[in-house]
Amino acid sequence: MLPATQEEIDQVTSYFEEQAPDLKVEFIQKVYTENILGHSHDVWDIHTDEDRWWVITNPSNLYSQEQFPNMDLAVTFHVGLCLRIPRSEKQKLSELPIEPFAQCYRYISEASDALSEAQEVLDYQSIGMRCREALLAFADAAQTVVPWASAGEKPTRADLRAWADHICSVTMAGESHKERRHLFKIQLESAWAFVNWLTHAKGSKWHDAEAAVSTTENAISLCTSSIIRYMRGVPETCPACGSHRLSPERGLRADLPDLEWERPTCDKCDWTGEPVPILNVPKPPERTDETPPAGECIIPTVPLRGLKKPPRDNQ
Asked: Other CB atoms closer than 10 Å to residue 314's CB: what's the count?
């Protein structure tokens, strides 16, 4: 059980009662919290007079523990749902919370999938190539939002070391970010050197391919989070009360209905920052060497279909 304020308990209880007016909350506790790409998701265990439910926040949704008896599965489903909701609203990948870095995460996903079937050196080299493409896609996207502004000649696309130094220097400027800047830069450079070695290595092993995927994913995830905060103008702490509990808030303006905006907000004192537009960023060219997966598709039936809903007065 995690500590929770009475205000948090009241908010979650109120949300649940709005969603399930026919159920009576008898017990509620916060049991888990996880930060994913800068978004904090709290998991609440709720006992009612009839059954038990999970409520997962940011944004809030509830899940029957009869269908999601495993909390990790509920969290995984919730995070996936958060990413897929924009698709149902016909938004573009560049408008997802990790825009415009969706392409590099796609390469990482491909490398991770290939790792589960890798057996030979050629497989490991192919994984190294996918990780290399992921890092280049990351640099491509970062160049768009953190353009080169130095007096010197602009580095080539493949000069990831130069871009890593530039990206980290701009997004984490100042003495207070010295250690973070060093860490993130070293992560990118080390991942780049290792995956380039793996792409051509003749004596690599499966563990080398696993290290390439993990190192690449970690480096990109850390730097993506830093760049997103820089793009959105998110302060280190709330300027009004000093709280670290900052969350993104999105919305539309009446005079610009086709443009979405985002601003940082404080969960503790309701401070709000200046909204910035969520601009579309061109994606890198699509890969042309992809082949459809072999075999038949498998559609899971439990618990991802026929989801249980709480009873409501109007049903």
From this structure: 4
pLDDT tens digits, the chain, 315 residues: what are they? 788 889 899 999 999 998 888 899 999 999 998 877 656 789 999 999 989 999 999 888 888 888 888 888 888 888 776 655 443 443 333 333 445 677 788 888 889 889 988 889 999 999 999 999 999 988 888 877 788 877 778 888 778 888 888 888 888 888 888 998 899 999 999 999 999 999 999 999 999 999 999 999 999 888 888 887 777 777 778 888 888 887 777 777 777 777 777 788 888 887 888 887 765 544 444 444 445 555 555 544 555 445 566 766 655
What is the pTM (predicted TM-score) of this model? Answer: 0.53
Q: Report domain extents, the chain.
A: 6-88, 93-232
CA atoms within 13 A on the CB side of 247: 16
Report the candidate in 112, 134, 158, 159 with the shortest Cα–Cα distance to residue 224: 134
* Cα atoms in the Cβ-side hemisphere of radius 13 Å centred on 242: 0
Q: What is the distance between the alpha carbons of residues 54 and 43, in angstroms, rounded to a whole number?
A: 7
Taking residue 275's Cβ as centre, other Cβ atoms within 10 Å add up to 17
Place of tokens 């265990």: 45
